[in-house]
Design brief:
CATH superfamily of the largest domain: Ribosomal protein L1/L10, rRNA-binding domain
Order of helices and strands: HHEEEHEHEHHHEEHEE
CATH class of the largest domain: Alpha Beta
Shape: globular
Oligomer: single chain
Strand order of the largest sheet: 7-1-8-9
Helix content: 25-40%
Structural class: alpha/beta
Number of domains: 2
Distance between the termini: 32 Å
Length: 229
């Protein structure tokens, strides 16, 4: 078991042994126990009532948080000709084709999102085994494989963020920074949970959102009372 530092233990004590906390109160507590010297990210971890081994129970989606994520996304677009021009005009940070594939093969990953026009997915396939495990491979289901590069690039630059469950049926999602006001963080977390609930598969029976924990980068997690959502 990993050893915890004095500041972490002090933050844990500040929670007073509270096990389940209403969402709004949990956000306030989160800010009160912060102790890092940098602006920590705030993540929400959700345990879902799904069978993650079944393909028809995969939970995925995307959302533009009402108050943003607090970070600027670098967007790469695999495109040529007029689509490359449109991507550049929309604000894409990197636009290209074979040249970008070569850079990625050489170990370059200085971007958060990748978009591709359908006609270039054969080319992108050369680096699929590299981008896939990193969660950077363009995906038609997420809307990042499209000829409509203008809209998707603009949305990504505005803060469009994707979520997907892992093999354990958990979803991990960043909802902002500790420097955000309590109200802004609350709105972001609430918006994410609503989007997550809307993505419930029809084949998932029973309680869908089973457990919600809000956690700062360096501090202890606070379990939200799901019954108050």
């Amino acid at each position: 078991m990993a050893k915890r530092g004095k500041k972490y233990k002090k933050a844990l004590e500040a929670l007073g042994g509270k096990k389940l906390v209403p969402l709004r109160e949990s956000v306030a507590l989160l800010k009160s126990v912060a102790h890092a010297r940098f602006d920590e990210s705030v993540s929400v971890d959700v345990n879902l009532g799904i069978d993650a081994s079944k393909g028809d129970q995969v939970v995925r989606g995307g959302i533009i948080l009402p108050k943003g994520t607090g970070r600027k996304a670098r967007v790469l677009v695999f495109a040529k000709g007029e689509y490359a021009d449109k991507a550049t005009a929309a604000g894409a940070d990197f636009v290209g084709a074979e040249d970008l594939v070569k850079k990625i093969e050489d170990g370059w990953f200085d971007f958060e999102y990748a978009v591709a026009t359908p006609d270039l997915m054969g080319l992108v396939g050369k680096v699929a085994k590299i981008l896939g495990p990193l969660g950077l491979l363009p995906n038609k289901k997420l809307g990042t494989v499209t000829f409509d590069v203008t809209d998707v690039v603009k949305d990504l630059k505005k803060g469009l963020t994707f979520f997907r469950n892992d093999k354990q049926g958990l979803v991990h999602f960043m909802c902002g920074k500790l420097s955000f006001s309590e109200q802004d963080l609350h709105e972001n977390v609430e918006a994410f949970l609503k989007a997550l609930a809307a993505a419930k598969p029809q084949t998932s029976k029973g309680k869908f959102i089973k457990k919600v924990v809000i956690t700062p980068t360096m501090g202890p997690g606070i379990q939200v009372d799901v019954g108050t959502l």
